[in-house]
Amino acid sequence: MSTIHHHHLKVEFSGGLELLFGNQRVHTLSLPAVIPDSERPSPSPSPPNLKSTSHSTSESRSTDVTYLIHYLRTHLLTDRPELFVDGDSIRPGILVLINDTDWELEGEGAYELKNGDEIVFISTLHGG
């Protein structure tokens, strides 16, 4: 049986988001390179007449930012998930940087994580 490879990531929260993660700004994570079957988020249903570009649930899928968001919500979030996630994605008003680049330029949630990646979540919403 093959060894499970892991990606070591640095995840940082700022702009107030760190308060939702135990008031810890920087987290070092080790995630499997392939999403475990037991933790694979259920895919959104797609119309049957369109061929889905995502992998089916029976295939292994590389760990991506969507999985990272799911992992953070499930394992690290300590308070008020509605301030971090909206459905299966990040709520509007949170800037996500992948290695100092806006995630919109990297494919957003579909970006496949690589060993050594740095993901930064910055809240641009400031409450009073």
From TrEMBL:
Example of a GO biological process term: tRNA wobble uridine modification
PTM note: C-terminal thiocarboxylation occurs in 2 steps, it is first acyl-adenylated (-COAMP) via the hesA/moeB/thiF part of UBA4, then thiocarboxylated (-COSH) via the rhodanese domain of UBA4.
Family matches, as Pfam families: Urm1
Cross-link Glycyl lysine isopeptide (Gly-Lys) (interchain with K-? in acceptor proteins): where in chain: G128
PTM sites of type 1-thioglycine: G128
Keyword terms: Cytoplasm, Isopeptide bond, tRNA processing, Ubl conjugation pathway
Gene Ontology cellular-component terms listed: cytosol
Name of this protein: Ubiquitin-related modifier 1
InterPro entries: Beta-grasp_dom_sf, Mopterin_synth/thiamin_S_b, Urm1
Compositional bias ranges of the Low complexity kind: 49-60
Presence of keyword tRNA processing: yes
Compartments where located: Cytoplasm
Gene3D superfamilies, per database record: 3.10.20.30
Entries under CDD domains matching the protein: Ubl_Urm1 (cd01764)
Function: Acts as a sulfur carrier required for 2-thiolation of mcm(5)S(2)U at tRNA wobble positions of cytosolic tRNA(Lys), tRNA(Glu) and tRNA(Gln). Serves as sulfur donor in tRNA 2-thiolation reaction by being thiocarboxylated (-COSH) at its C-terminus by the MOCS3 homolog UBA4. The sulfur is then transferred to tRNA to form 2-thiolation of mcm(5)S(2)U. Prior mcm(5) tRNA modification by the elongator complex is required for 2-thiolation. Also acts as a ubiquitin-like protein (UBL) that is covalently conjugated via an isopeptide bond to lysine residues of target proteins such as AHP1.
Annotated region described as Disordered, given as residue ranges: 33-62
Keyword Lyase belongs to the record: no
Protein family membership: Belongs to the URM1 family.
Pathway: tRNA modification; 5-methoxycarbonylmethyl-2-thiouridine-tRNA biosynthesis
